[in-house]
Amino acid sequence: MIKFSNVSLVYPTSTKTILEGLTFSIQEGEMVLVIGSTGTGKSSLLRLINGLVPHHTGGILAGDVSVDGISTQLVRPGELAHLIGIVGQNPSTGFVTDTVEEELVFGMESLNMPPDVMRKRVEEILDLLALAPLRNRAISTLSGGEQQRLAIGSALVMHPKILVLDEPTSALDPIAAEEVLSIIHRLVHDLSLTVVIAEHRLERVIGFADRIIHIAGDGQAEIDIPENILRKSEIAPPIVHLSRALSLGQVGLNVRDVRRMTEEVRTQGRDKPHSIHKVGPTAISLKGVGISYGSHIALKEVSTTIYEGEIVALMGRNGAGKSSLLQSIVGVKNLDRGQISIFDLDPADLKGKQRRTTVGYIPQEPSDLLYAQSVGQECAQADEDNEVESGTTLQLLKTLVPSISEKTHPRDLSEGQRLALALAVVLSAQPRALILDEPTRGLDYQSKTLLISILKEFAAQPSKSVIIATHDVELVAELADRVIFLSEGEIVADGPTLDILLSSPAFAPQVAKVMAPRRWLTVQDVMNGFEESPEIQ
Amino acid sequence: MKSLHPLTWWLWSIAIIVTVIRADSAIYSIAVVLGAAILVSKLAGNFPWSKSFWFSLRLGIFILIIRALTGVLIGVPIPGTKIAEVPIVPLPSWMAGIRIGGVITQERLLASLHEGLVITSVIALFGAAGSLTSPHKMLRVLPVMVYEFGVALVIATSSLPQLVASYSRIKRARVLRGDEKPKFKSIALPLLEEALSKSLDLAAAMDARGYGVNRSRSRYRPINWRVADSAIFASGLIWAMTIWMVTT
Prior knowledge:
The complex is a heterodimer.
Chain A: E1 2-10, E2 17-26, E3 31-35, H1 42-49, H2 52-55, E4 60-67, E5 70-71, E6 84-87, H3 100-110, H4 115-128, H5 144-156, E7 162-166, H6 174-191, E8 194-198, H7 202-205, E9 211-215, E10 221-224, H8 226-232, H9 238-245, H10 255-261, H11 263-266, E11 282-293, E12 296-307, E13 311-316, H12 322-329, E14 337-342, H13 352-358, E15 359-362, H14 375-386, H15 392-400, H16 415-427, E16 433-437, H17 445-460, E17 465-469, H18 473-479, E18 482-487, E19 490-496, H19 497-503, H20 510-515, H21 523-531
Helix pairs in contact in A: 3-5, 14-15, 14-16, 15-16
Chain B: H1 8-23, H2 26-43, H3 52-73, E1 82-89, E2 100-105, H4 106-132, H5 135-141, H6 147-176, H7 184-208, H8 227-247
Antiparallel strand pairs in B: 1-2
């Protein structure tokens, strides 16, 4: 169905070869997963399939890409629209019309399909993706998960033979992600749709993939079945790390298989001990906080206390009020009711230096914080703002990511490097509380590990607190001491990470699912359970 | 409510513009702008493009001021009641007939304001039509021949409101860095970068979905010309004819 013959790709302004001599073919009805660190060319590979690269981006393409027998070099991407549906990383930037129904028919109208065909297909897709109740809604009022489903729907409505998805679940909560992926899985089996999907969070997709393309970063790539790729790959989901750590001999890719392999293990070892909660003095306190946008209530009557020395994870569905809560804690969102104090100060009154030394905030787009023309200038600006010795911020950054070049423009950094730069700028002021909104969106495993170690180190200093809003259960399992679960603007659960994550199957990390009913969340927990245990040699 | 044909308000606006130019009266122009303002505030929904009337009104007022200033300071004097006098800027002899500065008369000021008002009301009427019609619906009735124009139209109308949202987001992030009065440059640069990359994404998405591949487009929901459309257009047309007759 898709055939790459000896494909090499170089972008015009870059000296780096993105792909070199890539040859593979994908059969009809196959689901292929593309993995690789950030910036290695996953998106480029996906966009080569329908010719958006190089038709839209420029660049030199050697070799040939052919789809269903058509060479993409000879036709414009639009002429493959009936054959390939593509859903970009951020669906909201790709919407062309105002309402759900208009968006679904846009592609079909462009291809001049007769109205009766369109009618039938629209109803079909509305049912398939459970979009029917939304059909007349304005797109701007949809939640992230709904937008993602709509984007997939408007690709599927063309009855493509190939569906290309670039990180389809990065903005979704675990349940919404599961929903989207199971729909795609069903289409592969029912309609023999060919799917190519790029994703960082392997734990979400690994069970569905038939083959994996692993892009190494030096232009080389290999394609093979998941077992073979993951046996040696650095990029692997927790479940594979678990198989490796327990030396199971083979890698299991889904919870069911690994559970069978580990029956023995589950009868041994010691559970993760209940962490004795070392409660410091109060850092942040919320009393009856309420926020509403017009008739929509974002937060109602939220009261809680965050203590010094804690790492608190804020979880919940898309649109549960996480971002509103974080923004009100840092004082950029006005409260309708209630009050918030942060180290006995009102966050809305914080200004200048006092703000920087009290609370550091990393927004969903870390690049919002950056505005200088180079990494070096950005660090110098932070030094000046915080009246610290010049070079301090840069030094901090170098300890986080040693390979970073001072002269690079912040825009050209990879997702992980940009986050590290924003963190360095914020941390150079030595804030007492650090607040992060969805920091792992688009981050690969390597950057995630780095982030975890930075945050743990920060929280280990005396009288510091961290609050982090995230959908990433694996991150929470590794990092957080305590989880607050929001739903519809209310706190529905609040307690130690172990208890909260184990109490709901949808939010349980992979290792916990494999090891249930044992109380282990991460590979490290399992290993610790065995080290301390005397009955294992 | 059944939505109107996307061309209705445009045709109506053009009819009214004809009357404005024909009537050539400052008071009538002001009345038309007021009428359009009432119409827009009553009928326009809460969509990104609904604000285009108020944008066009601001633009019109800006043009009015510039027109009045240049009209008074440059050009041939109209004799009449003197309001003030500005020194004449000496110009080289080959620019005979052009004069900068000199006596400002009441007549000259009024004539400039008058012309400015007519221009302002024409711009405001175009803005009103834009406010009352979804540009995306417009795109569906326009022929595919204007492909590039269509792409540009969609990008402009979708990225403007996004730009406003990004602006407040970036400004908030700056405040969080303890920077209460961020410099214009420090916001404008990331804003432009973001707008550019989003526009490219959108253009790629339109292309990938087959926009402009076929010379004709089919319609999922037929866009019909209804009685209400005829009524609105007829009202504009009758008004235009009345004004024409009165002024002849």
